[in-house]
Amino acid sequence: MTYVGRLAPSPTGRIHLGVARTSLLAWLDARARGGRLLLRIEDIDRTRCREEWAVGLVEDLRWLGLDWDAGPDRPGPEGPFHQSERISRYREALGHLEAMQRIYPCTCSRKEIAAAASAPHGPADEGPRYPETCRDSPRPKPGRRPAMRVKTMPGDVIAHRDRRVGDLGQDVHETVGDFVVQRVDSHWAYQLAVTVDDAQQGVTTVVRGEDLAGSTARQLLLRRLLYPDLPALETLHVPLLRDPSGARMAKRTGGYTVAEQRATGVPPEEMVGALASSVGLVAGGVARRPIELLESWVAADYGSHLSDLTPGA
Ligand code: GLU
Questions:
Q1: What dotted CATH number matches 87-192?
Q2: Which of the four CATH numbers 3.40.50.300, 3.40.50.11270, 3.40.50.620, 1.20.1440.20 does domain 4-83+194-299 have?
């Protein structure tokens, strides 16, 4: 099977060094395995994303020395490459789930869900396991567009091994419960958009930050429901870069965007060398072009032996 990977940044600000490092590692994996690499702009959250940041991230990734075979600036059969231009595909997928009677409208507020005392805690991003209040009896609320939830069933069990973090198997019904695929007021949920895009763009391997490891089983469940004939998806969840205080790097953390670092005069090879040394691919203080790291990537068993050398790890 031909390797197809993707870079999938969200343009919610200028990219920080964490996004740069994850992109570098995804690039290394695709190139070391002779794969095809796509750049997909994950801009479905229209309130947080801006096109100027999408333009900025293309510029920053290119400055680092990364390239891709198809993306917003390079046509390819997998396009369009902005999620905001792929909405009809998400709507169609929702239609399929509806035809399978696997979704239902939900008008619960976050507060109502949190207040359901018996709810065991699911993964942090979903909040407590949804108590299924709207599952059998819809409760329309005037003036409020419902969210849509996937109806999970006993047997919605996913077995999956990540190349670096290992077992990501999960009983989705037990652990997460019915999760949202379309948010209130028609915003598309990340889980659905990513599943549809990875499937339709022929992605075989997902390399991304380990903060998203907990989403994998939900995405694989959606993939099984919507695209039962597709081969299994391979994943590599890589460590998250932390700032010097040990906190997870976020767009709010000032001073750590690629653009800000560039402005101080750091050459790209130095930044790439520092990013690579922060996961143990090379010794500290060396300058490298991405292409000069391919051997180290193979030696690190294609990323399954990365070290997490950032502070606080
Ligand atoms: N767009 C997500 C992010 O920037 C990545 C999604 C993914 O790789 O699945 O964190």
A1: 3.90.800.10
A2: 3.40.50.620
How far apart (Å, rounded) are the C-alpha atoms in residues 220 and 212? Answer: 13
Which of 234, 171, 240 lies closest to 20, judged by CA? 240
Rounded to an integer, what is the distance from CA 247 to the centroid of its chain?
Answer: 20
C-alpha span between 72 and 52 (Å, rounded)? 13
What is the per-residue pLDDT across 59-111, written as a single tens digit (0 to 9) for each?
999 999 999 999 999 999 999 999 999 999 999 999 999 999 999 999 998 77
The pair of structure tokens assigned to 276 is 């690579």
Strands 234-238 and 205-209: parallel
Predicted TM-score (pTM) of the model is: 0.94
Atom 6 of ligand 1, nearest CA residue:
8
Question: In this structure, what token pair is assigned to residue 235?
Answer: 């994943």
Q: Which parts of 151-216 are beta strand (E)?
A: 157-158, 161-162, 166-167, 170-171, 180-182, 205-209
Å from CA of 140 to ligand 1 middle: 33
Helix, strand or coil for residue 297? Answer: helix
Q: Establish whether residue 10 lines the binding site of ligand 1, counting it when its CB lies within 6 angstroms of any ligand atom.
A: yes
**Which residues are registered as beta bridge partners of 105?**
148
Return the ligand 1 atom nearest residue 211 CA: 10
